[in-house]
Request: fold
Amino acid sequence: MKDSEILEKIAKGDETALDYLYKKYYRMMTNLVLKNNGTEEEAKDVYQEALLAFWQKAISGKLVLTSKISTFLYSICLNQWRKELDRKSRLSNEEVDSEEFQGHDQNERYKIVMQCISELGDTCKRILTYYYFDGLNMTDIAEKLNFANTDTAKTKKYKCKKKLDSLIKARYTTTDFFD
Amino acid sequence: MNPTPHQIDSYLRNELSSSELSAFEAEMSNNPELMDQVRFEQTVVEGISQYRKAELKARLDAIEIGSGWIGIGQLGSSALVKSVGGVLVASLVGVSAYFVFTAEENITSPETVYEPVQITSPKQSESYQFEFPELSDQKVSSVISEPSPNVAEKSSTTSEEKVEALPTTQKSVASLDEENEFVPVVDLPDLGELSEEKGLKIENANLPEMNEMDVVSSKGESPISVETIQRNSESIKYKYFDGKLFLYGDFKSTPYEIIEINRPSERKLYLFYDQEYYSIIVSDKVQELSPITNHQLLQELEIVRNNKL
Reply:
């Protein structure tokens, strides 16, 4: 597949393009980490994060690539791994501070949200994740999920979001949530 | 003004224009309720994102990555197979075209000429055209056929019989030869581009380039065979003889580990014994081992040993 074809597929939210890229550059990208004191697991993690960041950027259609996809991915991996090494060295210097501690609370909240999402129906999961993570617009979502039209998608998204909010709030009152 | 849910959404998706954004933020700083609401929404959106990420990662994890080294891993899946296939097909075109044309030149009676076979499979021609844009339509669809030994025989015997026709025949064969040889050569740039990709370079990257080191063969090299000879002395000695490593030392109380680092160009051997690393240089004389002191090398060996790469 040519780069332009891959980008076209991604813009439509076609996940097979993601699979294709993942496989194609797996060794190239993970080697970057492996050769710089990273483990196989870390290498995979960095590459997956980088690929998903690329996916989010590319799906919006706003991404203007001036290089090959591989070059672009490589530079994201490079930055991610540098950040990770940096974080590690700070950790080893025992500078674990309140930043980490606050992160813990925040992570708990994300867990609650994720738990509530998993309780939603499949359509709601699709709509909300496509909309909030992938950044697909309502027209694309309607097409992907075979809705009659964009308005149906909008209505459904509204209802799903309401449902999710109420699930979260039922579990924790707003004040608890932020304390 | 009280922002609508839609506006909050737009804010979270970074879709507000700069003027809308500053208005929104001004409103937020004056309106603690809105601030709370936005923070709530932010958490929800982040939670949704994490959910989706986990989902996509699970999808990626399920993808089987060809094990083995980079060369096969990367080339094998796509380009190399096609390139080799392409070269084969191209040569087939060349070779068979050679037979077709020589046969046509030599054999003058038309009824003895077999039916030429046309490549009609659209799938095939499509994929090869994609991989090798240099192969023009004309070349791909040019007449080819299975090179049958019969034909070759026929053409050689007929050319023997028609010795007087030889000069002209030779000439045409020679010119055809030149043309045919062109085809396989054309395929090479594709491979070149691939090897370039493998060695991708980023400026400012404070990292070693990808080079032949990537080609770590996981098979082929058999692990080195080791024989230990019990000695009760403190120091350990070794000898490398006839492809076998002999270790002299006290290995009853403390086990040893051999670390092999295989590269296409060289093979390095290290010994780990009693918290010390030793470098083994291939030599057929009995040598005493002294611990490695190079800090960086030690660190690398530590990583290799712990990860069992």
Notes: Chain A is about 80% helix and 0% strand. Chain A has two domains: 3-93, 101-177. The longest helix of chain A spans residues 69-92. Residues 101-177 of chain A form a domain with the Arc Repressor Mutant, subunit A fold (CATH 1.10.10.10).
